[in-house]
Amino acid sequence: MFELDRSQYPQKKADGTLDIDLTSGKYLKLWQGPQHPGITGNMAIELTVCGDEVVDATTHVGYLHRGFEKLMERRTFMQCFPIVCRICVPEPDFNEYCYAAAVEELAGLEIPELAHWIRTLILEMGRVNSYLMYLGGQAGAFGQGVIGQWTTYVRDLMLDRFEELTGARIYHMFIIPGGVRDNLPDGFAGRMEETLREIESVLADVDRVMFHNAVFKKRAVGVGVIDTAWLDSYGITGPNARAAGVAKDVRKDQPYLVYPELDFEAVTGKDSDIYTRADVRRRDLLLSLDLIRQILAKMPKTGAVMTKLPNVLHWKIPRGETYVRGECSRGEYGYYLVTDGSGYPRRVNVRGPSYTHSIALFERMVINANISDVAALLVSLHTYPPEIER
Amino acid sequence: MSISDVLSPFTAWKNLFRDPVTIKDPLNERPGAARYRGFHKNDMDKCIGCGTCETICQNGAIDMLPVDGIPAVQGDSGLRPRIDYGRCCWCALCVDVCMTGSLTMSNEYKWVESDPDLFRFTPGVDKKYWDNAELGYQRHDEKHLMPVAREEMPELHPEARLDSFVEIVHGYSIAQAKLEADRCVSCGLCIATCPAHMAIPDYIKAVRDGDYERGVQLLYATNPFSQVCGRVCTHRCEDSCAARHEGDPIAIRWLKRHIIDQVPQEKVIELIGKPAAPTGKKVAIIGAGPAGLTAAFDLARLGHAVTVYEAQAAGGGMTRYGIPEYRLPYDALDKDIAVITAMGVEIKYNHRVGTDIAMQQLEADYDAVVLAIGLHQGRSTRIPGSDHPQVRKAVDLLRQITAGETIDVPKSMVVIGGGNVAMDIARSMARLQMQHYGEIRVTLTALEDKAHFLADPVEIKESLEEQINILDSRGPQACVIDDNGKLLGLKTWKVLSIFDAERRFAPKYDPTDEQLHEGEMIVEAIGQMADVSLLGEALTEKLEWNRGRIQIDPNGRTSENWLWSAGDCVKGPDVINAVADGHRVATSIHRALTPQEATA
């Protein structure tokens, strides 16, 4: 069946619907999720399969809808600060950064330089965590559970660093409008260096066991190719775009925080398949470790970490709108904030990259895929359902 | 793909020989990080129950609740935050926003219960094992979620005010007032402290919103003396302000003044609205001071016909004849009085009850009479020589200055007393000295030491700026007079203690530390009393008295059912208490004059 050119299959009718007869006994409707080990969170995929080939797929989200954007319209600007991180569980810091930066821009606040450095540090630490989680998930989607155990171990070390820096492990609530909540604790750089070395050591194992693995290559090379022509039409950003050879990286394209002062190049690949995307992320992870070292070496050691705030209990921000973006581990993360001069946001719209990657793009990519590759495909797009739904 | 891709995955087996990385709990303790945001702690010695933590909590996890053994007192609501860990998200905004720094977090994170409802507790009250945890999240100084410093008030430079009675304080600009009003957290501790229970957080919000008309309405709902109180109120509200614990208290008094300064007087009268329809009842009020005029304002608003008898040529009582013009300009006072008369209150100036009209006449002509005569008689130290004509009483001199009478200004003088009146007379006389002689020679001697001065700290600071020589812990012993009958000055001894073990006034001196303070005039400013001679013998006899003051019930009614008394003469000691008193008697009189409807 797969020897044939399947690109024209299944055929579509004039109105765009599939020209298949679901009652023929040839097809099967199959739900993958919302509770499924191959799903990276609570979302479901409604698959139509013919044998082991997917002929149609519809994504179903909504299981994680918490209504954050609406909740924020009923909270003061400072009260929104503790809830934004919950929009994306595995890498919450981009919510904190984008929200804080948007509020600061509209309120006309300048934050201290040290806070910029610490924010950058936090975002890179979060990226490391996110990639470690991804690597475990990607390997796990092909049945290789050990990688997840290893990356969870080193991710936990990074969570220790988060805990001593921010006071929390998962929801850090540290990048507050006006700056950050504290300077680095004493001896932080040394302990971070130990953590980075441990991560590098585990990554070397991951490289041997996952990336130089005949099974992984058989399953991942040439599978799930993203055509470069799709990049703009689907709004593909981040490693998914970079693995297709397009150096899209907000850190480079529209530098924010202290990225202009850091020495790095966007990591790219060229084959645009699952393997390349995994490899781009692995190398991007190594880049993040390097960036953390650069930040710790270059950042000022003392100084203010917060600017003077007006009374946050009735903080009103003048009418305005802005869009603040940052490069998270999945691509472009963004906050569109509208203020109307009152003490509450008029509208907050969160752009989580999984929204563009894991619905429309995924539904297209999964057609003609083998059913056993569906989970790996979804993971290879680095999908975080909580940021799809907010 | 190569042969190494087949072989290299087997390197994973090396992990068989490594130690596990997991931490076995509870065999191994794993403490939270030093700044971990764990369970809450609350320092009961510091917490004032302002509820700011409850306000900022976006989860509604904090409820302010009364606690046994913690009474509500001035500056402390008596409430304490109870935290619901079913709702808490550990963001620590409550810690960051805490006005006293009492609320912190420990680094503890383990708490096991069988009943989920038990994860609700009042930190500091419900004892927990982490109460004494040293580590955990704390706010440090620069993380205040609001400005802690007061907006500076523009003032006349000390040099410029040495010889001038021009008002010292300029008042806030609109931008400054907004910034100052922004600092308020609306906890309302001030409302409980203010004797008149003014709606302080609400009118501060009106300043923030720039809605001055609403502000004026809020002020007049509780206080017809906003010009006066906006300038000279003793502002006890600011002493209980939550912001004072880790910064300056909100400048409540200046914000009140700012509101009333922004609205023209005609608009103020329009905003208050017309009084109620006439009731046909008549009330006489003796004394056009803050207490009398507040009662007059309230009663006139309720439709009663009010006549105020005032012995002096102008209204205001002690606020006019006791407070110098540089603190309270007469035109500000006039504005407050004009609003009150616009409500239909008739003030008969230069009418001294007892001389121009008898109390019996008032009793006969009116349905109710209010005695609000203030404290216009100065007390004397009664030390040797204090009967010398150049030994004067502060209140008499201040009255003469206000009335524009000519005063024989001494080249040097001594003031006895350490309260605000002493400062007032010292500073007024210093100004006159500067005008007449170009130099200031005023010595002020107070019984109290500097740490326990009765005067407002600002008064002391400004007095020093104005070159007043302030001496603390000096007890007056004699006014020294030479053989020709000329006053030479005041002899004082050092004060060792003022009160005895039972806190009774019994000063002890050190006679070996004697000083003579030169002065052509000595002014006694050690307190005032009411001049009750107007009552006449018969009424004085009939009334019940309490330690030299007329006995009143909680509503200000005397033992004579037609006579009420309010203000300094029965209660002290400041404008805002007089205003509160005025409201109290007005309410009581209105209730007495209004026929009670039969209730089932």
TrEMBL record, chain A:
InterPro entries this protein is in?
A: NADH_Q_OxRdtase_suD (IPR001135), NADH_UbQ_OxRdtase_49kDa_CS (IPR014029), NDH1_su_D/H (IPR022885), NiFe-Hase_large (IPR029014)
Q: Which UniProt keywords apply?
A: NAD, Quinone, Translocase, Transport
Q: Provide one Gene Ontology cellular component.
A: plasma membrane
Localization of this protein: Cell membrane
Name the major location. Answer: membrane
Residue limits of the NADH-quinone oxidoreductase subunit D domain?
149-390
Tell me one GO molecular function of this protein.
oxidoreductase activity, acting on NAD(P)H
Q: How does it sit in the membrane?
A: Peripheral membrane protein
- Of which family is this protein a member? Belongs to the complex I 49 kDa subunit family.
Q: What does this protein do?
A: NDH-1 shuttles electrons from NADH, via FMN and iron-sulfur (Fe-S) centers, to quinones in the respiratory chain. The immediate electron acceptor for the enzyme in this species is believed to be ubiquinone. Couples the redox reaction to proton translocation (for every two electrons transferred, four hydrogen ions are translocated across the cytoplasmic membrane), and thus conserves the redox energy in a proton gradient.
Protein's UniProt name: NADH-quinone oxidoreductase subunit D
Species the sequence originates in? Thiothrix caldifontis
Q: What is the lineage of its organism?
A: Bacteria, Pseudomonadati, Pseudomonadota, Gammaproteobacteria, Thiotrichales
TrEMBL record, chain B:
Signal peptide interval: none
Q: Which domain of life is it from?
A: Bacteria
- The 4Fe-4S ferredoxin-type domain is annotated at 38-67, 79-108, 175-206
| SUPFAM superfamilies the record matches | 4Fe-4S ferredoxins (SSF54862), alpha-helical ferredoxin (SSF46548), Nucleotide-binding domain (SSF51971)
Do you know which PROSITE patterns this protein is assigned to? 4FE4S_FER_1 (PS00198), 4FE4S_FER_2 (PS51379)
The UniProt keyword set, sorted, is: Iron, Iron-sulfur, Metal-binding
User: Does this UniProt record's set of keywords contain Repressor?
Assistant: no
Concerning Pfam families, the annotation shows:
Fer4_20 (PF14691), Fer4_7 (PF12838), Pyr_redox_2 (PF07992)
Q: Name one GO molecular function term.
A: iron-sulfur cluster binding
Q: Which PANTHER family match?
A: GLUTAMATE SYNTHASE [NADPH] SMALL CHAIN, GLUTAMATE SYNTHASE [NADPH] SMALL CHAIN-RELATED
**This protein is called what?**
Glutamate synthase (NADPH/NADH) small chain
